[in-house]
Amino acid sequence: MQITPQYRKTQHTPKINQPAFKGLMRLDPKTYAPLDSWFFRDYNTLKAAADEIKYTFPQGAEVLDYACSNGEETISLKSLLPDEKYKIIGYDTSESALKLARRGVYTVFSHWHDSFLLPEAYPNRAEQPLKTGFYRIMEETLPEPQDRLINNKKSYFNLKNRLPGFIESFFRITPDKKDEIDIRRGSIGNLDKYRSQTSKPLGAVFFRNALYQICGNDLNETLEQRKISRFSYDKKAIIEDFVDKLYSRLDRGGIFVIGDHIKDHLFLADKMTPDEETIYFKDTPFFNRLDDRHKKVPFIRLFKESPLKTALEKGNRFTPVGYSTTHLVAGGKKMTVPTIWKILK
Ligand SMILES: C[S@@+](CC[C@H](N)C(=O)[O-])C[C@H]1O[C@@H](n2cnc3c(N)ncnc32)[C@H](O)[C@@H]1O
User: Fold this and answer.
1) Which atom of ligand 1 lies closest to the CA of 66?
2) How far is 223 from 306, CA to CA, in rounded Å?
3) Ligand 1 mean position, distance from CA 292 (Å)
4) How high is the pLDDT of residue 286?
5) Which CATH superfamily is domain 43-262+308-343 in?
6) Which of 106, 155, 227, 337 has the lowest CB atom count within 10 Å?
7) The pLDDT of residue 8 is above 70
């Protein structure tokens, strides 16, 4: 993200009465990295990406879904690309997330982003095809005792107790479709070593809402807890190395898809970032003078332009073809940001 007024402020209709609950709300017990995900997260991006893949690769393609977490993203993708000519492989590094993905049992709650999937919900016109696609792969199920531990207990009871008409349903992948959801252990850092499973082109790499975990971009935490990470990552070098690997592996016309989380777009400067490439938080459109969390840290240094955007655009290797909106947890202002990047070879 380039922090200039050219970033359009967008109109966004917030979901009604959204309680404070973040998807799965689970932390990896070893790394404490958040594993949160939910079905059809940032649907506009998912749909545009699936359409782009179908248009560019009518003969089929491989799709790598890195940072697939518990598999909800991989299932969402499969339901948007149901034809078996699209081979989707979900990868993650967290054993805890992979265990859930391999088990394939999920909860859907009322009053959440994916609550339109509940059997008794009335989806709007845009959501109806998603619900139909979802039920082609998933079915309602009764939970076994281990499935009751899928969610973080504190968040779960907080939500349940605050919402009088709270509904919770369990789903699983239908047994005849289980083989279509391919989940493996793997890091995006090894993307250059990926060997095709089929003779099809590598049409897409997803790495949504996870880049901050490989380069320590803990912006919201800094704002909310005034905590500045003790570790200093060279974000620019990490990201440039990653983009080189991506460029070497994706086939012509392929896409790279990132998340709509602010941490995929707005980056904290590190010790290595020269001053001329930085901007103070107080001088960005994200700064909210009325918010106490913001007022405490006006002089945090941020990258003027997202190092990911800079690396992708370097040498005209990628161009943005799809957008979403993002915002700071403590800010409220929504900005349009590129989430789908197409390779230009
Ligand atoms: C916040 S979750 C996002 C899940 C999903 N992509 C989404 O947007 O809903 C971040 C995930 O990234 C995974 N992750 C972190 N580093 C990774 C890496 N190097 N390669 C693959 N996955 C990674 C974590 O284990 C976690 O499951």
Assistant:
1) 21
2) 18
3) 30
4) 86
5) Vaccinia Virus protein VP39 (3.40.50.150)
6) 227
7) no
- Reported residue count of the chain is 345
3-state secondary structure of 99: helix
Tell me what percent of the residues of the chain surpass a pLDDT of 90. 63
* pLDDT tens-digit series, residues 203-212: 999 999 999 9
- Backbone torsions φ then ψ of 279, nearest 5 degrees: -145, 145
CB neighbourhood size of 217 (10 A): 27
Contacts of 205 (CB under 8 A, 6+ apart): 63, 64, 66, 188, 191, 246, 249, 250, 254, 255, 256, 257
3-state secondary structure 132-166: HHHHHHEEEECCCHHHHHCCCHHHHHHHHHHCCCC
Q: Is the pLDDT of residue 11 over 50?
A: no
Going from the Cα of 66 to the center of ligand 1, the distance in angstroms, rounded, reads 7
Burial of 316 (0-12, 13-18, 19+ CB in 10 A): exposed
φ/ψ of 229, rounded to 5, equals: -55, 140
In the structure, which protein residues have their CB atom closer than 6 angstroms to any atom of ligand 1? 28, 33-37, 41, 66-67, 69, 73, 91-94, 97, 187-189, 208-210, 213-214, 259
Ligand 1 nearest-atom number relative to CA 97: 27
CA 94 to ligand 1 centroid distance, Å: 8
Rounded CA separation 294/86 (Å): 45
pLDDT tens digits, one per residue of 83-105: 999 999 999 999 999 999 999 99
- Measured in Å, residue 187 CA sits from the centre of ligand 1 at 9
CB within 8 A of 299, min separation 6: which ones?
A: 280, 281, 282
Mean of pLDDT values over 273-291: 91
Distance CA 343, CA 330 (A): 34
CB atoms within 10 A of CB 155: 18
**CA atoms within a 13 Å half-sphere pointing along the CA-CB vector of 164:** 0
Q: Is 60 exceeded by the pLDDT of residue 151?
A: yes
